[in-house]
């Protein structure tokens, strides 16, 4: 029983972390339909700047804030320079964002050097509690809480405002949305910036979790994020949350019970979900 | 229209001729190898273009077929004799294998809509990667293994010619393929699947056949790749290979067939030059940044890929000369 | 004479909404029947059921006595059931000529030929050209379909259907958005085809004046149900049709002209 | 096209008699390393070490047996096909006499056959895969780097003993499997018992399930074989393995990676190199020069390896009196011993693997050093770490 | 009467094509102006140019005494112009309700009340309130497109072929609605249905080959058999 609880809590926490990584992509890829291969770059920049600001200010919270600001700024630059010319054209998006990904990753090395850098958990979140055989790692609990907060925040925003609707409409028919009096360019810019900020936040929270940041971390986790967004159903926050938790739990249980298959677990999960639910778990509808 | 075609073919002929003569006037092995490498990736990229450019399918799992060819050839050369016979046999076996696998995967997955299909191919090829990783008795896992190439290829020039011949052959066959009535339907499927259906063509058949053709050709490229390195490891199944094929196709111009060849050339050559520059000028130490910037500029200046954009420009100039006015003057009926 | 097309208790539901409800009709061969009915009556859906785009929840479709209810759209087209679409549905980035040529290619049953250059099939090209002329699109052969004006797209749509040369033609509002001047020309094309006497035509239209003298019979759909099926005059005199569908427009029109 | 011509004429010109240098002779060495990409840090270490090594071995003259030494570095980008391209370029265009490299086992394996084809000596540094001097071995291959088995033997020597229960944890691919298999053998030879072998997806974010199993097994030691940035140390600490009486042991990596091992302070393991560990002149020179040249930085994990490779080449050439012919060198180098920053190394005759010292260490926190420092417990002599012969 | 919209000799290029080659007309407050012309004449492009979707390369568009030639589309729309495109521009994956929601610039009581009014005009929409726009019938889509433009009290409405695909009785209703709306709103209409055009139009502009051929009062056109025959093929 304790074992099951442990596995579940850890799986849930990993799932939440993955959700945080994927949430930005849910906006950018799921909702705006931009195949953003540079997402991992935004994520890695978030991680590095989080560590850097933390070291600079000696405050974890300020580190996170710094990362989010970095994300917003980078999101602005990315949207204006890279994404604007290629909205609606997936082929061009692949090329230009992959190019930008290379630039972002290499720039990390220019700024912070090619070596990995240690990322520390703040003292008040370090360590774990033990209740009998049940062990709860503080930082994971923190991740779970942040995950739910972010989920709630964005779910509320998408449900209670028209932004989600407008973005989806804009993807379907940009001209028409404009003809209805909406400055869709600005909406896209803001949503992209929000997505980039989420990516950066994900990176900043991921860093202490694994204890290290390195320039190539972006690409690895970007693929995971794409998987989550797709099996969750494009553009659906509840879908992404569910998919992320599914991935987290499946990883946790498989690694324990069927370790031989744990390498393949994400891919298998995705294959199974898509074969039985070709549109993903949820659709973007509230 | 006819004339333009001939002109194009003429140009291509000259290009091929130059490449045939090249090893005789230059004995730079680096160039032979680099060009061989470019030819191999051209074949791979062309196969990808059949999917992306002609049928409108984005696949993130193309490396799986490339890897299948590479492993089949490598394993057969290692386990059996490294002779030309075995080499061609292994190529055939690899292609057959890729054909069968792509057929079933296509049947299973091609009903899915774009993104979902793309991710499913990613999943399947990911599973193949795990398989190669785990089946160590055969693949030696992630480290991979070396093997001997046939005696005939000891002279890399011979291999160069073989690969060049393969490239030309594949190009001609694929050109035929896309310009056949079948190929025209592929384009129709890309444009509007549902309408293709109501014209009496079954889109699924077309998509599956296209993915089989693409898979088989990718496997051929994989076989050649393995022999060119005399080594194989799991990197042939990695996402990077798919992305390379994807980038080459896009940079060159999707749906042009010649574009992927140009794209392969551009990417390999710039990479070669930039990394060469890095040795001489410290500012190029981070040459990958410049490489990334080239992708970005490519999209901005060649939105339809190099070949696609040039073609468009030429077509525009032509049509401007003859001034095809969209608004047709018609005599009033009165 | 046996009906070429027949439905039996044809029904389809979308969620709770019955779009076509228990429609049994018979289509005599080589005739022209028009289908009218208010917006959302189920006309297009009925076409979709005939052409195989949709599968019925209940009921059967017969073609020449053969049950085709579960057949795919592809198979039905090959069998001889061709259709045009209400919402323009062409290959947007191909030229007008290529759009039509593809349809001709299907008619000629050239489906899996992969080794010959398509330029070898000159006749396809010629035939496509003739059809383009027929629907008054000459001069626009090399225009990209997405750049056509709305009316021009409608004409292309018709050319593609005619290219299929199927025994049964299902036309969904072929003249919607076509300019006043050209409607008669298109009607003429339809009339000619009808006069040649080897085709069966089903036509959805809202322009009553144009179908009255063209149709052998008219059927009326109403809330998914078959309300009436009879000669044009019978239908025009039908009071429900008058009140719920026609309104006053055509009376006054008659007065004015 | 004109570039092509230039490139192609150069080699011809330089081989011609009219070239003055030819009389004196030049020894050319090509070094392959990952100078970009994920393994960039390793590549740089090799490069710096190699340059320093040449300088040291030639006494700053950069000449051996009257011949000038030239070095060409090439970036493999950690891609086998690029490695082959660059290696061929080195062999064909630069006409190098030696190949050195590379940072990844894959790149190295891909280049091995070329050494044989061109009959040039290849010094493998720092790739670790056993198969390089095992199943894929050819006589032109010499390795100054330690291999996975040596790591494993060293790892076992650090902790194994009669009755000791050990669990292993490794990434789920060749590197992990080879490492664990070799470790298991070595540990069992020393009388220990390997009670559990856990493998995890190296890219996973969560290792707690594996660690959970290890906790349940309750071994004396957990031996971790790990490489790559995404590491399990935090989670090992979070799950309080050490508090539960499970001692951790692993190989101490380069300094950058050490900095993330804070949770493991106190652990006993082994290392290939840390600049304070070896006690010999070569190392003293290396540390001093390195600090001088690279504004105070100390040599790192693979710096001495690069240096060793350079020393090996120079020593061999001294013995051959400048004869760089691959076939002749093989017999000279087989069994050759040479002094390196890690003490005396000897190329084993059978598989050309350099026998070398490794170090049994303990991680300690030291003032003024921002990362856990490996402190010497004892040096593991080349005899102790001798791996099995596999070729 | 006051001129609300003045289109002055506009030229529009799409790609390398010179589509509009001199279109001029005026729409006066409280009137319905109809653009007439055969397929491909440039009627739709004219409306798009006014909306800023295919900006003019030459000439000017003045709306409400402001030059809007170079303004962004959303800005033009917000200055009080509603637009019903010929392809309806329905967001297929959004429900009818969501389609309406996107169109509403604000959700105050006045707008909601107006929505009620619009829905009375097209009761079908109410029936299919939660249905995906893409699943509507052709005519229902047309209704939805109009409802979206009508939900605000715009100063000007640009409507591209409102009667297309509608049942005769609905055309009646739409005509009534336009007549009703005309009291507060100026309307520019593209219409192929001459019966409808002549009944609700006050002025007409005849376009051919991308240029204005003639413009005048609708009453005159009804009796101008010559023009009707030459450009409209009727009479
Ligand atoms: N795929 C679908 N899902 C849900 N409802 C649908 C679907 N297709 C059609 N409907 C509904 O079925 C009804 C009939 O639609 P249909 O398109 O057949 O009407 P129609 O008679 O062609 O009307 P119109 O004259 O306006 O084209 C409509 O109410 C429509 O909303
Ligand atoms: N994107 C485009 N690219 C090139 N040509 C275009 C484009 N859009 C329209 N055209 C051309 O401009 C001309 C005018 O088109 P427009 O749509 O304005 O005609 P229209 O008068 O609305 O016709 P219809 O009555 O058929 O709707 C047509 O010849 C059309 O082919
Ligand atoms: Mg309809
Ligand atoms: Mg129009």
TrEMBL record, chain A:
Pfam families: BPD_transp_2. It is found in: Cell membrane. It is a multi-pass membrane protein. The chain crosses the membrane at residues 12-32, 52-74, 94-112, 139-158, 187-209, 221-249, 256-276. It comes from the Bacteria. InterPro entries: ABC_transp_permease, BCAA_transport_permease. This is Branched-chain amino acid ABC transporter permease. Its main location: membrane. PANTHER family: ABC TRANSPORTER ATP-BINDING PROTEIN, BRANCHED-CHAIN AMINO ACID TRANSPORT SYSTEM PERMEASE PROTEIN LIVH. Signal peptide: none annotated. It comes from Sporosarcina saromensis.
Automatic annotation (TrEMBL), chain B:
It is found in: Cell membrane. CDD domains: TM_PBP1_LivM_like. The chain crosses the membrane at residues 7-26, 38-65, 86-108, 114-132, 158-178, 208-233, 245-267, 287-307. The keyword Membrane applies. It comes from the Bacteria. It is a multi-pass membrane protein. Keywords: Cell membrane, Membrane, Transmembrane, Transmembrane helix. Coiled coil: none annotated. The keyword Signal does not apply. This is Branched-chain amino acid ABC transporter permease. It comes from Sporosarcina saromensis.
From TrEMBL, chain C:
GO terms for molecular function: ATP binding. Transmembrane segments: none annotated. Keywords: ATP-binding, Nucleotide-binding, Transport. It comes from the Bacteria. Residues 5-248 form the ABC transporter domain. The keyword tRNA processing does not apply. It holds the Pfam family ABC_tran. InterPro entries: AAA+_ATPase, ABC_AA/LPS_Transport, ABC_transporter-like_ATP-bd, ABC_transporter-like_CS, BCA_ABC_TP_C, P-loop_NTPase. This is ABC transporter ATP-binding protein. It comes from Sporosarcina saromensis. The lineage of its organism: Bacteria, Bacillati, Bacillota, Bacilli, Bacillales.
From TrEMBL, chain E:
The keyword 4Fe-4S does not apply. This is ABC transporter ATP-binding protein. Residues 5-234 form the ABC transporter domain. The keyword Phosphoprotein does not apply. Gene3D superfamilies: P-loop containing nucleotide triphosphate hydrolases. It comes from the Bacteria. Belongs to the ABC transporter superfamily. Keywords: Amino-acid transport, ATP-binding, Nucleotide-binding, Transport. PANTHER family: ABC TRANSPORTER ATP-BINDING PROTEIN, HIGH-AFFINITY BRANCHED-CHAIN AMINO ACID TRANSPORT ATP-BINDING PROTEIN LIVF. GO terms for molecular function: ATP binding. It holds the Pfam family ABC_tran.
């Amino acid at each position: 029983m304790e074992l099951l609880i442990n596995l579940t809590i850890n799986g849930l926490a990993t799932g939440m972390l993955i959700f945080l990584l994927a949430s930005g992509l849910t906006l950018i890829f799921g909702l705006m339909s931009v195949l953003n291969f540079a997402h991992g770059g935004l994520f890695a920049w978030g991680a590095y700047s989080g560590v850097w600001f933390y070291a600079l200010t000696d405050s974890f919270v300020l580190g996170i804030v710094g990362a989010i600001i970095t994300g917003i700024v980078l999101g602005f630059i990315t949207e204006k320079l890279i994404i604007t010319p290629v909205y609606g054209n997936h082929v061009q998006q692949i090329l230009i964002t992959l190019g930008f990904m290379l630039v972002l990753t290499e720039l990390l090395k220019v700024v912070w050097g090619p070596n990995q850098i240690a990322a520390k958990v703040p003292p008040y979140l370090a360590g774990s509690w033990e209740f009998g055989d049940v062990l709860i790692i503080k930082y994971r609990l923190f991740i779970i809480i942040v995950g739910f907060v972010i989920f709630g925040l964005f779910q509320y925003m998408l449900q209670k405002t028209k932004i989600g609707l407008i973005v989806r409409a804009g993807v379907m028919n940009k001209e028409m949305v404009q003809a209805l009096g909406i400055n869709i360019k600005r909406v896209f810019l803001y949503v992209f910036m929000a997505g980039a900020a989420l990516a950066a936040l994900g990176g900043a929270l991921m860093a202490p979790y694994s204890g290290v940041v390195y320039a190539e971390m972006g690409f690895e986790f970007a693929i995971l994020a794409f998987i989550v967004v797709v099996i969750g159903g494009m553009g659906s926050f509840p879908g992404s949350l569910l998919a992320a938790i599914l991935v987290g739990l499946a990883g946790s249980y498989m690694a324990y019970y069927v370790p031989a298959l744990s390498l393949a677990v994400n891919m298998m999960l995705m294959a199974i979900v898509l074969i039985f639910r070709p549109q993903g778990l949820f659709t973007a509808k509230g | 229209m006819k004339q333009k075609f001939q002109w194009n073919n003429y140009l291509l002929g000259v290009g091929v001729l130059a490449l045939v003569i090249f090893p005789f006037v230059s004995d730079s092995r680096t160039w032979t190898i680099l060009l061989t490498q470019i030819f191999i990736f051209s074949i791979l990229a062309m196969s990808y273009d059949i999917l992306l450019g002609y049928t409108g399918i984005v696949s993130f799992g193309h490396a799986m077929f490339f890897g299948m060819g590479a492993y089949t050839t490598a394993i057969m050369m290692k386990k059996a004799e490294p002779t030309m016979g075995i080499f061609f046999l292994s190529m055939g076996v690899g292609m057959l294998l890729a054909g069968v696998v792509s057929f079933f995967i296509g049947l299973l997955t091609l009903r899915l809509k774009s993104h979902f299909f793309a991710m499913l191919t990613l999943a399947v090829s990911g599973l193949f990667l795990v398989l190669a990783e785990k089946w160590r008795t055969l693949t030696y896992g992630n480290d991979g293994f070396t093997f001997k190439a046939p005696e005939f290829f000891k002279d890399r020039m011979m291999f160069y010619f073989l690969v060049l011949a393969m490239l030309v052959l594949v190009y001609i066959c694929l050109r035929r393929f896309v310009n056949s009535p079948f190929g025209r339907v592929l384009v129709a499927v890309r444009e509007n699947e549902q309408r293709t259906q109501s014209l009496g063509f079954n889109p699924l058949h077309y998509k599956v056949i296209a993915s089989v053709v693409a898979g088989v050709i990718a496997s051929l490229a994989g076989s050649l790749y393995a022999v060119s390195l005399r080594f194989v490891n799991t990197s042939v199944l990695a996402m990077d290979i798919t992305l390379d094929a994807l980038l080459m196709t896009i940079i060159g111009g999707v749906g042009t067939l010649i574009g992927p060849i140009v794209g392969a050339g551009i990417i390999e050559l710039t990479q070669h030059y930039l990394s060469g520059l890095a040795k001489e000028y410290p500012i190029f130490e981070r040459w990958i940044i410049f490489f990334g910037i080239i992708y970005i500029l490519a999209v901005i200046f060649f939105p339809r890929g190099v070949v696609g954009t040039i073609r468009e420009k030429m077509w525009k100039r032509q049509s401007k000369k003859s001034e095809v006015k969209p608004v047709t003057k018609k005599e009033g009926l009165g | 004479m046996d009906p070429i097309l027949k439905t039996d208790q044809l029904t389809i539901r979308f969620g709770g909404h019955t779009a076509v409800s228990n429609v049994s009709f018979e289509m005599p061969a080589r005739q022209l029947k028009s289908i009218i009915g208010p917006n959302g009556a189920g006309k297009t859906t009925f076409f979709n059921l005939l052409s195989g785009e949709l599968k019925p929840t209940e009921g059967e479709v017969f073609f020449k006595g053969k049950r085709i209810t579960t057949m795919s759209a592809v198979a039905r087209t090959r069998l001889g059931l061709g259709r045009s679409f209400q919402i323009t549905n062409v290959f947007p980035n191909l030229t007008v000529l290529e759009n039509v040529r593809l349809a001709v290619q299907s008619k000629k049953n050239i489906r899996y030929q992969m080794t010959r250059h398509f330029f070898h099939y000159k006749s396809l090209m010629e035939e496509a050209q003739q059809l383009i002329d027929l629907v008054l699109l000459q001069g626009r052969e090399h225009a990209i379909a997405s750049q056509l004006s709305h009316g021009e797209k409608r004409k292309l749509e018709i050319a593609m259907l005619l290219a299929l040369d199927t025994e049964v033609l299902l036309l969904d509002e072929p003249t919607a958005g076509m300019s006043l001047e050209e409607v008669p020309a298109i009607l003429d094309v339809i009339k000619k085809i009808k006069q040649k006497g080897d085709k069966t035509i089903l036509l959805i239209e809202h322009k009553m004046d144009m179908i009255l003298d063209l149709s052998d019979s008219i059927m009326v759909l109403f809330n998914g149900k078959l309300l009436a099926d009879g000669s044009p005059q019978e239908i025009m005199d039908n009071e429900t049709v008058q009140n719920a569908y026609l309104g006053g427009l055509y009376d006054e029109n008659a007065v004015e002209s | 096209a004109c570039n092509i011509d230039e490139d192609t004429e150069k080699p011809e010109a330089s081989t011609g008699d009219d070239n003055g240098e030819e009389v004196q002779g030049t020894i050319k060495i090509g070094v392959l390393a990952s100078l970009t990409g994920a393994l960039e840090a390793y590549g740089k270490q090799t490069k710096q070490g190699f340059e320093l090594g040449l300088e040291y071995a030639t006494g700053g003259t950069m000449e051996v047996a009257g011949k000038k030494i030239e070095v060409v570095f090439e970036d493999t980008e950690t891609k086998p096909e690029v490695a082959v391209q660059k290696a061929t370029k080195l062999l064909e265009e630069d006409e190098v006499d030696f190949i050195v490299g590379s940072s990844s086992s894959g790149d190295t394996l891909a280049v091995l056959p070329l050494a044989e084809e061109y009959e040039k000596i290849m010094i493998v540094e720092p790739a670790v895969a056993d198969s390089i001097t095992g199943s894929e071995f050819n006589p032109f291959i010499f390795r100054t780097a330690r291999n996975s088995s040596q790591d494993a033997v060293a790892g076992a020597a650090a902790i194994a003993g009669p009755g000791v229960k050990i669990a292993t944890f490794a990434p789920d691919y060749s590197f992990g499997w080879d490492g664990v298999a070799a470790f298991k053998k070595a540990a069992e030879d020393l009388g220990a018992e390997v009670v559990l072998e856990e493998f995890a997806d190296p890219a996973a974010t969560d290792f707690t399930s594996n660690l959970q199993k290890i906790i349940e097994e309750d071994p004396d030691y957990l031996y971790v074989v790990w490489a790559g940035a995404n590491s399990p140390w935090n989670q090992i600490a979070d799950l309080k393995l050490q508090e539960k009486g499970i001692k951790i042991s692993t190989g101490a990596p380069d300094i950058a990676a050490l900095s993330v091992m804070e949770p493991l302070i106190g652990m006993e393991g082994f290392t290939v190199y840390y600049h304070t560990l070896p006690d010999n002149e070569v190392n003293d020179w290396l540390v001093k020069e390195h600090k001088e040249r690279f504004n105070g930085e100390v040599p790192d994990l693979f710096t001495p390896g690069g240096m060793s490779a350079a020393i090996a080449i120079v020593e061999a050439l001294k013995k051959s009196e400048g004869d760089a012919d691959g076939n002749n060198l093989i017999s000279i180098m087989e069994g050759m011993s040479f002094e390196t920053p890690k003490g005396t190394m000897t190329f084993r005759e059978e598989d050309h693997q350099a026998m070398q010292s490794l170090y049994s260490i303990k991680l300690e926190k030291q003032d003024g050093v921002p990362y856990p420092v490996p402190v010497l417990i004892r040096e593991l002599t080349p005899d102790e770490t001798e791996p099995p012969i596999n070729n | 009467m006051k001129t609300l919209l003045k289109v002055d000799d506009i030229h529009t290029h799409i790609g390398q094509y010179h589509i509009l080659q001199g279109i001029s007309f005026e729409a006066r407050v409280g009137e319905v102006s109809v653009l007439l012309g055969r397929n491909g004449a440039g009627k739709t492009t004219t409306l798009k140019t006014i909306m800023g979707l295919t900006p003019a390369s030459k000439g000017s568009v003045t709306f409400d005494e402001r030059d809007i030639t170079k303004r962004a589309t959303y800005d033009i729309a917000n200055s009080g112009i509603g637009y019903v495109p010929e392809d309806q521009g329905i967001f297929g994956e959004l429900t009818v309700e969501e389609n309406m929601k996107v169109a509403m610039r604000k959700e105050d009581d006045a707008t909601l009340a107006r929505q009620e009014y619009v829905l009375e005009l097209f009761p079908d929409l109410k029936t299919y309130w939660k249905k995906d726009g893409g699943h509507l019938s052709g005519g229902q889509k047309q209704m939805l497109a109009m409802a979206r433009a009508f939900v605000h009290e715009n100063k000007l409405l640009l409507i591209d072929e409102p009667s297309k695909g509608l049942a005769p009785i609905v055309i009646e209703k739409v005509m009534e609605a336009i007549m009703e709306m005309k009291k507060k709103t100026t309307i520019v209409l593209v219409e192929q249905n001459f019966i409808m055009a002549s009944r609700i139009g006050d002025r007409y502009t005849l376009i051919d080959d991308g240029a204005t051929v003639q413009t005048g009062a609708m009453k005159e056109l009804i009796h101008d058999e010559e023009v009707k025959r030459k450009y409209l093929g009727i009479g």
